[in-house]
Amino acid sequence: MFLVLLFSVFTFAQTTKTYYTCPMHPEVVSSKSGDCPKCGMTLVKKTSVIKPKIAAKPEVKPIPKTEKRAKPAETNINKAEVEKNRKLQKTNKIKETNKIGQTKVIKPSVQSEKKAVSPVKTQAQISYTCPMHPEVVSDKPGKCPKCGMDMVEKEDHSHLKAENPNEKKSILKRNSENGRITFGGKTVRYDLYVKDTIVNFTGKNRRAIAINGKLQAPTLYFTEGDTAEIYLHNMLNENTGLHWHGVILPNEQDGVPYLTTKPVTPGETHLYKFRVSQNGTYWYHSHEALQEQIGMNGILVFKKREGEPKTEYNAEIPVLLGDWSDDDPMQIARRLHMANTDWYAVKKNAVQSYWEAIKSGNFGTKTLNEWKRMEAMDVSDVYYDKFLINGTPSSDYSNLKAGDKVRLRVANGGSSTYFWLNYGGGKIKVVGNDGNDVVPIEVDRLIVGVSETYDIEVTIPENKSFEFRATSEDRIGHASLWLGSGEKVEAPNLPRLMLFEGMKMMNGMMEMSGNMKPMNMTMGNQMMDMNEVMYPELSENQRKTTAKHINEMMGVKTEEDKKEDHSQHSEMDMKEEKTIKRLSYNILKSPEKTILPTDTIREMKFTLEGNMNHYLWTLDNKTVTETDKILIKKGEILRIKLYNNSMMRHPMHLHGHDFRLINSKGEYSPLKNVVDIMPMETVTIEFAANQDGDWFFHCHILYHMMAGMGRIFSYENSKPNPQLPNRKLAWKNFIQDNTMTSSMAMLDVASNKIHAETMTMFGPRWANLNEFHSNWNFDHFEGSAKVGRFLGKFQWALPYAGVRVQKNHEIMERQMAEDMGMDFHGKKNWFGQQKASKNKFAFMMGLQYVLPMLITADASVDQNGKVLLELSREDIPLSRRLRGNFSVNSDGEFSTGMRYILQKWLSVSGNYDNEMGWGAGVTLTY
């Protein structure tokens, strides 16, 4: 009786036990309030309640000693039991990692429960379906019997359901006293010296920024639990700084100038100090202006703690991908902003001119493309001279032999390039993404988005040198890493894209309004690669199948689709076609549950939009400089739905947090800090608001970010940032740093006339346009200066105000006639008004608008009521280097011409002007 009474008292005490735990790290338990030692989030108070009937069971029915020992094991774990489970885990090769810190916590009761329940549950949950035909469901992977597309795991939406009480009990079991986290580790110091240097990749010396004497910054190694002390010595003549990409750290150490961290001024030494609470592959780079394009990046390796389960490799190699241009990055940004990228297209051989369209039988496709006011098809905006791995186009690791297993820690440090990764030695196994472990998956190739990291395992199959290749998405070049020694075995070559096929796809997806057509279904997580229609290495049948799926999504039925019945695909044809397995987000799986609490969820939606006209990239048609910070509360769960309503991919990166990318794995959805969103895709991410301060959420394509594609999440009631004491001034400086001002100019010097144009963009919307043309006697000229604001996300409309100055014989004759009191009977314009203006100088207001076929209509009225309408177009792509132009206005003036592009700044040109005659000369373009 005494023992039973004692047991009852103990049980009662358990029902009222209070403890504190971290919403992001439930294995962290404390008897006192405070902050989580892993992520800094405030611990949440919880009380465990156990029903009396469970505690009363021993009174009703005595339990044998063996069972009595098993029951308390749910809340109290002895050393022998822990050791037993460790051995069992090692035998079964089960990796126990928490979702961010990867610190091992032994949970015998949960482990035994998994043995009994999980396999059955998994078998019941996993099913496969066709992305295009969701009614097709199978319990095995394979091809869709209707269309032949590879079936994917069916999405599990169980994460949206309310939290189940049993799950809470399970979490409570994991929060045992033995599950507490302690931070040991040591202080690890690095000194980074930033200095200008010269590199030469193309035979031309160009400026770069070196860290410790090299273009690629040194790889920094830490062990989870260490305290990082990184001293940045700025030896440049400009501000700089470093951002620790994907690292969870105090806000003031994040490294975004004026937002989280003060800029490091010339001659200054700055200390970054933070505790390492993660393990995996991360990287670091400058967030100061466009410095990342010319250096200032390196890899971070956070090793697991001693004693943690880990795979042994013969070699672990950091692989930093990069893109190099001989152009100054400020000039690249300026050209993009001013839509002056003809030279890039010429260099890439990516011009889809009318001549090439006619030769390839795509004249109708090209015409429809321009009728819908779209630019030519491409998957990358910038021409890069070289692509790099670890700072060089090619490098060797020859000290590897047959059978060696190698871990490649890959980080895409490119400014705007996506890379396809493949391997000459066979398949590649993905074991980690964005610093977090994933259940290993083998693929033939994968595309790594800008700023993403992947941990990849490859094996050296024989004593040869095998190429690990990173090919730019536009396939104009690649960089190589050679593993092993001996005869070289190249990775599969990726041929140039069939861009007109991509143009056809784009035409079908876009409405005349510029928006994407509404879809019959929601696609996401890279389940379908629409660019497959452009991949020559795929079979024609596979490309056509992808094209049909796109039409199906758009609700379009083509003549070919009507003739061909999808159900007629024979099994033999499907088997004969060797498919290339690529990685998609939908098959990434966390090795453990990543579910978050559901009681404080806050949902947000953003539409990713933009245009190539003036390189505007926005969320909900607003740039980061046009919006206020988004206030969030500590402790809430943010669920964000992102829809890409543009034709470009966008790798969206969240600073200072990991988020769950909701995919088919449901509770085991992977943790990431970058999500690549393809055109027309919708993805959902969610994260716990467990930090303090302001955090950047932005597209990691450098030039998209600088064009405005981002938002700031700001925690309410944040403590003051010691590095930015004047918060209002810091925000003003941040806005100023992220507001682009760009200009362009054109001067056409011909035998019959001189013509000049300039344009300046002030931020994303405001513009100044100036134009002047004259004969060489300067007795017949016209000029104008306009200031206006572009409207809409496609910036097709520009209302403006300005002045016009004119001089010609008709104006002089009109003035003379009026001065003499005589009626003037000069030529009339299209609207029945006198062509000759009343005076040389006049104020005006007007509107420019882009019409189909990319023709600009400019209608204005001056202070005297005279109306002028002009229709014009520049840069009509007649061939790869030949451009046409024309202009006609309501005064009856007409001109046309052509120019042949010789190089970046220079063209030869010819023209005809109905008032100035024929002429030839040169055109200078800036």
Would you write up a description of this structure?
GO terms for molecular function: copper ion binding; oxidoreductase activity. The chain is of the alpha+beta class and 926 residues long. Among the domains are: 14-48; 187-307, Cupredoxins -  blue copper proteins (Immunoglobulin-like, Sandwich); 386-489, Sandwich (Immunoglobulin-like), CATH 2.60.40; 742-925, Porin (Beta Barrel), CATH 2.40.160. The chain has 18 helices and 49 strands. It has a twelve-stranded antiparallel beta barrel with strand order 38-39-40-41-42-43-44-45-46-47-48-49. Helix 11 (363-371) crosses helix 12. The longest helix is centred in the N-terminal third of the chain and has 18 residues, at 108-125. The chain is globular and about 105 Å long.
